[in-house]
Amino acid sequence: MATYVAPAPQVVAHRVERDDRGFMSWLTTTDHKRIGIMYMVLTFVFFILGGVEALMIRLQLGAPENTLVAPQTYNELFTMHGTTMIFLFVVPMMAGLANYFLPLMIGARDMAFPRLNALSFWLLLAGGIVFYASIFWNPPEAGWTSYPPLSNAFFSPGGGQDAWIYLIHLTGISSLVGAINFYVTVANMRAPGMSWGRLPLFIWAILTYSVLLIFALPVIAAAVTMLLTDRHFGTHFFDAGTGGSPLLWQDLFWFFGHPEVYIMVLPAFGVVSEVLPVFARKPIFGYKAIAASTAAIGFLGFLVWAHHMFATPLPEAIVVFAMLSSMLIAIPTGVKIFNWIGTLWRGSIEFTTPLMFCVGFIALFIIGGISGVFLAIFPVDWQLNETYFVVAHIHFVLVGGAVMPIFAAIYYWFPKITGRMLNEGLGKLSFWLMFFGIIVTFLIQHAIGLEGMPRRVYEYENVGNLALYNLISTIGSFILAAGVLVTVINVLRSLKRGAIAGPDPWRANTLEWFTTSPPAVNNFDAVPRVRSAEPMKDIRQEIERRTSTAPAPGHATVPVGATQVGV
Amino acid sequence: MHTTLAVLFAPKGGASPNANEINSLYDITLWVALVIFVGVEGALGYALWKFRKRKGVVAAQIHGNTRLEIGWTLGAALIVVILSVITFVKLSSIQNPPNSDPGGALVGDGGGTLYATADKHLPPNGKSLEIKVIGRQFIWQYIYPGAANPDGLGAPYSYTEMVVPTKTTVTLDIVSSDVVHSWWIPQLGGKYQAIPGYHNYGWFKIEKPGVYRGQCANLCGRGHARMIAFVRAEEPAQFEAWLANQKRELAEAETEAAAERTKLNSQAGPAGVENP
User: Can you tell me the distance from the alpha carbon of A567 to that of A565, in angstroms, rounded to the nearest whole number?
Assistant: First the structure.
């Protein structure tokens, strides 16, 4: 006797266009999903390159007065490392995630300007190639901050500094154009019923990211153009001897440079705000507070740049203003952290890999944020600035605060992109290696800075505890690298052998889970009217309501996306 | 005097009032930071343990709590205000140098420029030992008071090791002759960027003789890691003696160089010097 099985509601796309295949189709694609994948793969390659540069730095610093690399090479390494991680990894990785998921999360077919979207990617690639070509000649060696006079034609005669300038120009245009694209897409192409108050918080973060890029990028573009003309066309913007000012560069650079760090970290916050509610099984705590604090941080981020210049002879009024605004920005940041803990509070927490990366992020970002308060207090900053205390701070907030959420996003969204699950065991191993790797590498660096070791030094004398502390930090960097490697292996294995994911393996809340995994070219055949900030919950409830008359007692109505985790 | 444990948690200091005041400000900030750290990480850890998924327990579908939001926003603001107020209370003792002790070296006798500007802080009686600090790739030079000429030329100078008298307020005029450097002796206070075209003013006052080490704290090129500096503090009498000796030795070297120049000028042919 055959047992009756209630037909399970399925997500099926009918009006599907045939997939393009082949190399040329990727070269000429304007599909946001393909562009997103290209972004994510390319930026991850740069992450590995930047990571190798970091490991070489740590190897050189593993022993006092080490001679593994020459002073020139060392200066080139940290210049390439910082520039790569910021301009070629974190910022464009966020663009890659947004490229793939922003249209899906708002129920749209593609970005507002698909060809402009492709242009953004190819400009990014061009920038990376131009920059890395310099390693065959003279890489830049003036740090990612390129202060003149060191970066001018007299003190940096090689072409590496120019390669750096072209990187900024090319990736700058790439990001600027992408930012406009994101904003216009969200403004115009949201699904019916998706008011601004029902936008996923990741989208709020990308909107803020876009606005920050639009306001900050023109300033750095101007500054590097002025540096270029100083270097090659006889201008004297930054030359003190002929009426210019090196201090002007610092002001211009940091007016961009500080918003840049919020550009890096706000989308990461957005990812966390998406992932936590899914695995705590309850809504985000304080949706409005998180959205408002995102906007507040974006705005305040433009006021604080002088806190990078506390050691310069700035007028006292500016210094005080920079300190107060930097202290102020701690408040909306703290509010977010409390709201995330509130999301976990009284939840039913499932310790999946994406959740663990988000929790690791919170734990590490608290440390990074607190060390930032020390640096905001300018008399204390006078001791801590340009030392390893600052290196510790920036890496807690960037590796803890941006890289961990990027890995959370990878584990969370890989099923949607590829249709397969990543391996949970490897994922957890990767998490623990990275979490401990970050702590071992960077926590001791606070002490290294307090002992008096400045940044950007290729060697240090064997005084105090510097040798031991630096060795600990170096060991930590390899633990962190191992953690990254485990995820790379996980991704490569799971592409062919991962469990089939189905449309909604996590029972998540946002619209990208309403379509197949991977989505069809046109994303959705139709999107139901959005009624809240968690449209998938409403959709599931509606399906339950409509199919609650199914026969055969004892057979529960199967929710959409039946390969579930937990529940 | 710092034990290893103390250094693990605090900047170097101990040799000058400004450095000590910065450390005390740091200590207060550290206590506040530790309380916040334990509280917030504790709440996170507790939530992860107490609310992990368990059979039969359903997550509470809360969307927020406005009173709590306002509460913790105000709480964070309060902490920020308190830290700012404490900073401003301590600021003047960090920025403003005290008078030299009665036994300090003779100062204010025409060496250096003794004017106060908005950025330059002088002791209340306006007298200090002013030393000009010049950063260049990759060595520090110091110019002391005692110029033979009114235009400042002929002043005694030294490289790498700055010699100063104890019990005397030393004010620094920090400049650069090429790229951006940064003057930093951790035990004597904070750091000051040396930017071409700008003056940056600092100070310290050392109680007891000793040698204090520092190094350039802003990337200045390939030799940045080796641009070391020392400050050697000696009793005022010994400092005066050293300064007088330095002047004498420099004057002797100048005389020898002048003699050499004259000799080269009087030679004809390839060994002669054109347009000395």
Answer: 7
